Recover the amino acids of this structure.
């Protein structure tokens, strides 16, 4: 029983999306204003996120969560008073659901 | 004419019938006021003898003063400076000059461009200069007009752009009409903008005007370029110059721009030539096309990377030494940094993070090696105003030249070539090879970054930029708006090599610059036969949308592509940052961002807005696959000589 609980905990720690809702995560991503700097599909911008996309290539959950809660860089930290743990997990699930972009070499407009 | 008479008779008959009807008892019953119960009074007073004589006698024509209207002479002075355009909003306080410009001056050089706001007038002149290299003249009411114009003048000041502003006023309180003209007069109209103009004067005679106008032009056109102002007294405009032959117009002789001291130039060259990791940072360095060539020559001599901060088009982004993508890293590794006309040297070599730490001062970190040597060439040191803080934080540098960078580059290039030791030739060549490899890698990374959100709706800004480029790439194009608001995609993805491929931003970051400056720049491009494109932020557009009408009215071809993210995006994170610091949720109400930062509910239809002002338009477009056909049509309209607008609903950045 203890072993089973430990396994469940480990799985959840690695992948909170297993228990979270990507659909609600998208709503939370918009409601909490994440999209304003990171774009509606997490593409990022050199103006507001150092040019780094959030997804795909998402940070591991622990790193992601820790950064959101305690960053002291350009992005302000979000405490659990203003962004609940549940919403953050759902946002993570939404970001995990974003598909990989096409290879730029296959887009004619990017190869003029 | 006969038809007109018949119509008039019918009209009068109709009026008579209507009068009879209203005089009927039935009509009177409903409308008779109590005063009618009193004794009837005459409908009008008897005319005085003077009025009767004036109305019945032979009109006497006032004797016209001999000589030349003062404002005609002013036009002679203005024409002597070969000023092509005069974007202005009409005002009573310069009516004398206005009339002279269009009737005596033939509305040519300068041509009056009708503007709907003084801020628009100055911003048009601002954009025009950055393409044409010639200053324009703007007329305003001295009080209310200059107040409207003030923000745009401040932008031009911060952007080191010359504009000649004249504010109408009427100084003689015993002669000027009471009421509105007196509201629109002041003792010292230029005081309002003195903190951010290079020089001003209030001429009290026509000869004084001629001297001051030529001096104003000369000072404005001496680097650092800046706006200048003249008060334009109404009496001076409307007086008569009895002896035109005695009035003279001083000859304009351009001033040589200030160059760096030769000893300082040689010492800077020695540091650069012997550096392991030299970096060149340029902001408003290239004032002309020649400035771009000179910077390429300097960079190639050193095989030094160039970070273009894009205050102007300083360096071709197709060159392997264009290393914007690695700017911070290269600055951090540099042993010598050459800053050319930097607006903010401190911000170039330091970081500031506004996170409320350190008793609210935020994190302030140096980004450079403690041993790095800093060199600065900037003409802004020659400005001596103190109130407005556009001079930015003080950055201590090792060699500082109060000089124009472009004018100093030839001497610096020569000194660098002489200072390069032959022993360093191989190392410098190897540096160039490394830069080529880095440039290729950065290009591939940038293109891949552009692929993110490629099919998104709202439309990704990279997709929008490249859809536009596909339509204009074979034309002689000029990007006349800033592109920072859309993640700088045009300057990252489009090949920019010519000095008119981009023109930098507003300078003082005063919103309301974008649309009118683009129209002004497009006017200069029209005369040069170029195609102009402006990515126009929605918030900026709503400060001065009337300029779209000006573009239509004067046939200024410009493709405006709305970057319509439906918000004042810059401000969102300021509110969010403070709310987070206070552990509060930034209240959005029914909007998608903190209250006060969104432009929605209702959303603005910029296509309809442009259409109402007589402009061809399309949109709003939300599906990226709809962009190409709309842009194709818009490009055809612009190629035919008219402005067009395509409204694109976009991602925030």
């Amino acid at each position: 029983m203890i072993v089973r609980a430990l396994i469940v905990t480990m799985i959840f720690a690695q992948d909170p999306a297993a228990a979270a809702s990507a659909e609600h995560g998208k709503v939370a991503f918009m409601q909490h204003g994440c999209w304003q700097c990171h774009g509606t599909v997490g593409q990022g911008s050199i103006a507001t996120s150092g040019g780094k996309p959030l997804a795909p290539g998402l940070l591991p959950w622990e790193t992601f969560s820790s950064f959101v809660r305690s960053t002291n860089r350009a992005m302000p930290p979000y405490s659990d008073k203003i962004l609940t743990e549940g919403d953050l997990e759902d946002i993570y699930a939404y970001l995990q659901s974003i598909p990989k972009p096409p290879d730029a070499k296959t887009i004619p407009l990017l190869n003029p | 004419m006969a038809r007109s008479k018949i119509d008039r008779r019918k009209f009068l008959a109709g009026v008579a019938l209507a009068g009879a009807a209203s005089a009927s008892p039935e009509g009177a019953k409903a409308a008779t006021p109590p005063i009618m119960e009193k004794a009837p009074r005459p409908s009008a007073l008897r005319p005085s003898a003077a009025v009767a004589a004036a109305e019945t006698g032979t009109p006497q024509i006032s004797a016209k003063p001999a000589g030349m209207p003062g404002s005609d002479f002013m036009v002679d002075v203005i024409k002597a400076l070969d000023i092509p355009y005069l974007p202005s909003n009409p005002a009573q306080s310069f009516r004398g000059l206005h009339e002279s410009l269009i009737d005596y001056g033939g509305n040519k050089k300068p041509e009056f461009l009708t503007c709907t706001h003084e801020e628009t007038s100055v911003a048009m002149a601002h954009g025009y200069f950055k393409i044409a290299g010639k200053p324009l003249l703007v007329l305003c009411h001295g009080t209310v007009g200059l107040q409207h114009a003030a923000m745009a003048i401040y932008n031009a000041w911060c952007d080191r752009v010359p504009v000649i502003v004249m504010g109408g006023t009427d100084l003689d309180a015993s002669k000027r009409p009471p009421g509105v003209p007196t509201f629109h007069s002041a003792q010292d109209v230029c005081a309002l903008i003195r903190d951010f103009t290079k020089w001003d004067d209030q001429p009290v005679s026509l000869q004084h005007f001629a001297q001051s106008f030529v001096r104003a032009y000369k000072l404005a056109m001496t680097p650092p370029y800046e706006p200048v102002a003249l008060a334009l007294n109404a009496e001076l405009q409307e007086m008569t110059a009895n002896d035109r032959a005695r009035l003279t117009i001083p000859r304009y002789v351009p001033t040589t721009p200030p160059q760096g001291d030769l000893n300082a130039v040689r010492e800077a060259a020695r540091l650069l030539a012997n550096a392991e990791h030299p970096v060149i940072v340029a902001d408003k360095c290239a004032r002309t096309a020649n400035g771009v060539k000179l910077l390429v020559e300097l960079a190639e001599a050193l095989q030094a990377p160039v970070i273009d901060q894009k205050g102007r088009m300083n360096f071709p982004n197709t060159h392997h030494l264009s290393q914007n993508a690695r700017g911070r890293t290269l600055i951090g590794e540099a042993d010598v940094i050459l800053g050319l006309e930097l607006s903010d040297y401190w911000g170039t070599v330091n970081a500031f993070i506004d996170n409320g730490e350190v008793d609210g001062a935020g994190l302030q970190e140096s980004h450079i090696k403690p041993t790095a040597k800093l060199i600065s060439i900037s003409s802004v040191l020659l400005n001596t105003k103190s109130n407005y803080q556009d001079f930015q934080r003080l950055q201590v540098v090792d060699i500082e030249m109060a000089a124009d960078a472009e004018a100093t580059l030839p001497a610096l290039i020569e000194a660098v070539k002489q200072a390069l030791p032959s022993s360093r030739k191989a190392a410098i060549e190897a540096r160039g090879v490394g830069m080529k490899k880095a440039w290729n890698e950065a290009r591939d990374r940038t293109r891949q970054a552009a692929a993110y959100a490629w099919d998104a709706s709202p439309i990704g800004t990279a997709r929008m930029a490249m859809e536009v480029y596909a339509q204009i790439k074979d034309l002689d194009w000029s990007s006349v708006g800033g592109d920072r608001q859309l993640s700088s995609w045009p300057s990252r993805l489009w090949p920019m090599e010519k000095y008119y491929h981009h023109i930098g931003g507003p300078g003082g970051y005063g919103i309301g610059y974008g649309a009118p400056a683009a129209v002004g720049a497009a006017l200069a491009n029209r005369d040069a036969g170029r195609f102009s494109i402006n990515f126009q932020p929605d918030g900026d557009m709503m400060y001065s949308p009337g300029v779209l009408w000006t573009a239509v009215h004067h046939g200024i071809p410009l493709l405006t592509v709305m970057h319509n993210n439906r918000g004042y995006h810059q401000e969102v994170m300021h509110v969010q940052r403070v709310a987070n610091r206070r552990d509060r949720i930034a209240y959005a109400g029914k909007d998608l961002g903190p209250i006060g930062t969104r432009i929605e509910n209702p959303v603005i239809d910029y296509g309809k807005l442009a259409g109402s002002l007589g402009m061809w338009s399309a949109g709003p477009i939300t599906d990226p696959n709809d962009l190409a056909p709309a842009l194709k049509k818009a490009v055809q309209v612009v190629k035919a000589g008219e402005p067009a607008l395509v409204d694109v609903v976009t991602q925030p950045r």
